[in-house]
Amino acid sequence: MTPGGNSAERPARSLRGEWRGCDQRPRLDALPFLSRRSTLAADAEERGPAEVMKVGIACLAGAYVLSQFYRAFLAVLTPDLGRDLGATAGDLAWASGLWFLAFAAMQIPVGAALDRMGPRRTVASVLGLAGGGGALLFALAQTPGQVMLAMALIGAGCSPVLMAAYVIFARVYPPAIFATLAGMTLGLGSLGNVLSAAPLAALVGAVGWRAALGGLAAVTLLVAALLWLAVTDPPRGPDGPTRGSVLDLLRMRALWPILLMMFAGYGPAASLRGLWAGPFARDLHGADAGVIGWVTLAMGLAMVAGNFAYGPADRLFGTRKWVVWAGNAVVLAALLLLAANPGASLGRATLLLAVAGFCGSAFPLIMAHARAFVPPHLTGRGVTLVNMFGIGGAGLMQFASRPIHGAFADPTQAYRALFLFFAAVVALGLLAYLLARDRAD
Fold it and tell me: Where would I find the Major facilitator superfamily (MFS) profile domain in this sequence (predicted)?
């Protein structure tokens, strides 16, 4: 073949020249079943990195809907799992906690994979294998222990989804809009919170929880395949240091108050929405599965709205630190009011849970605050480290909440102690965050 005579080689050379290492994957577009990826790659030459990323980002936002769904759906399944498998509230606390701990444990390897392999291969393979497999195991579970194992697998599978989007935001878009993009992704993804409430209750009532989980396993595998086809890895960034590890980040004193605020700020709202809101409404207010669905729906919608509200707040108020601090102070107040009279009307309790959900959705702004201190070549490790503190905190709180709740025979006293525990965690986080350095891009 003469030089330049192979038409299949010219687009390949052009792409290598245009992207300059943006996408290091081997060229497979000669295969007919991957022709769609070939078309997307060719379009990238004309549209530029930010433009071509949009399809992949939209798919990642859709995958994050699944992630949010999976971390919150146990509250609605409480009556069914108790009846069919003998699962207690304590068993489900362990199962939910394992989801968060598996998710958190994956953050360090996921961060390294995002920096070295890129988002596409990382998110598609982990979500498909661990997430889809875990959902299938859940559908077939016969004991509470199998539910716990399934939740751990699903947590691991969901671990790279949001961080893959954040790596793309950090490398492709201006730093000043990172929090807005992060909040929009969280807000859209938090629709999974909504779907895991009343809609899931209706679906389970119609087809049963096993069929519902089997369908979710199929959806998870399809989403993973779509991510493999649609996501494009971002450019590596400007020349500079290329070596480093998470230990370099842990040596940065400026990050520690932010990490502690992420630990304390995310866990309480996530634990209440994903685990305790259902048993609380049932035990103290006699709610059935349908009513539990509406209570958790209210809190889920509030969390969606909160993510959208926090996103642009740093540019609106000119500060990240004090927006986060003020919002979590309101969470503290809501938790103390719930603790003061947990047996009051269900309407009052639902309103306070919604307030805690809205104001406790500062995750995107805390992430943006931390990212401002992270060197560009450690972006993947940086965002996953912060995420590990948030998700790991939620997991540890769910484990710790089980003996706190179980220490009291009287349900009113049990839930009072639970709300006071979450309030104490938020209060300690607020104290630590006072030492944080404010920084805006």
Answer: 56-441
Sequence-ordered list of residues with C-beta below 8 angstroms from that of 381, at least 6 positions apart, any chain: 108, 111, 112, 115, 244, 245, 246, 249
Instruction: For residue 44, name the pLDDT band (cuts at 50, 70, 90).
Output: very low
What whole-number distance in Å separates Cα of residue 60 and Cα of residue 343?
40
Cα 429 from Cα 308, distance rounded (Å): 23
DSSP state of 233: P
Q: CB of 426 within 8 A of CB of 265?
A: yes
In a domain, 187, yes or no: yes
Question: How many residues appear in the chain?
Answer: 441
Handedness of CA 147, 153, 158, 159 (dihedral sign): positive
**Tokens 């390949």 identify what position?**
12
What tokens were used for 336? 């103390």
The 3-state secondary structure of 329-371 reads HHHHHHHHHHHHCCCCCHHHHHHHHHHHHHHCCCHHHHHHHHH
If one counts every other C-beta atom within 10 angstroms of the C-beta of residue 164, the result is: 33
Structural domain of 162: 48-236+245-433
Q: How many structural domains is the chain composed of?
A: 1
Q: What is the mean pLDDT of residues 211-219?
A: 95
The answer, as to whether pTM is greater than 0.70, is: yes
Residue 20 lies inside a defined structural domain of this protein: no
In a domain, 12, yes or no: no
Query: Residue 316 corresponds to which amino acid?
Result: L
Q: What's the pLDDT at 238?
A: 55
- CB-neighbour burial class of residue 153 (10 A; exposed 0-12, middle 13-18, buried 19+): buried
More confident residue, 222 or 169: 222
Instruction: Read off the CATH number of the domain in which 251 is found.
Output: 1.20.1250.20
| End-to-end CA, the chain | 52
- Residues with Cβ within 8 Å of 406's Cβ and at least 6 positions away in sequence, in order, are 90, 414
- 21 vs 29, 41, 235, 238, 257, CA distance in Å? 17, 13, 7, 11, 36
DSSP 438: P
Indicate the helix (H) or strand (E) that contains 78. helix 74-85
